[in-house]
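To: structure desk
From: M.T.
Subject: fold request, one chain
Message: Could you run this one when you get a chance? Sequence is below, nothing fancy, just the single chain.
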Amino acid sequence: MARGRAPGFDASREEILAQAARLFANHGFAATSMNQVAEACAVSKPTLYHYVRDKHELLALICQTHLQHLADLVDEVSARQLPPQEHLRALILSFVRAYGESQHQHRVLTEDMKFLDDTHRAPLIDVERRVVARFADAVATLRPELRDVHLHKPLTMLLFGMINWTFTWLRPDGALTYEAMAPMVADLFFGGLGSVKAELPSSAGMAAPAS
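Reply: Done. Structure tokens follow.
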């Protein structure tokens, strides 16, 4: 009879994934060793291998967990049964905020998934495509004529192009936060540059200055 997982297994692995994502994001997947991951998690290397088979499985789990979280967000927004424009706006806001809360995981997904073999990468790409398709459907529901001329998907990719690479320039310790950026992204997508309000975010939406 197979031995079950020890209590706390999932929580411990979640912490390992978080620490590994931080290391991969800051130093790159290729330059990070399992020794460094074990040290960051304050566990021995044999203990680390109790939770993951190797570094590639660690990478796959980080990407899989992050993508599943995004897929769950799409379901949560859809369950609210909002009118078309509010639905698409809610999707945009939830994704920008999620990227802000999971900056390391998002950088790893964006930059390091290429290191996975086809067996690990294929199901991840499938989830990505399903998430993008749900966004494209939301765009087409709001503007049905765009589906007729096959523009709903290209416009969706432009939207993801706007938000997917925010981590490359938005400083985590800067005054402008992901929370403050979220409505700006939605306003820009819906109305173009003219719809963006020329005012700084309120203090509630601003991060504390770096010391």
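Reply (cont.): Residues 56-194 form a domain with the Tetracycline Repressor; domain 2 fold (CATH 1.10.357.10). Let me know if you need anything else for the meeting.
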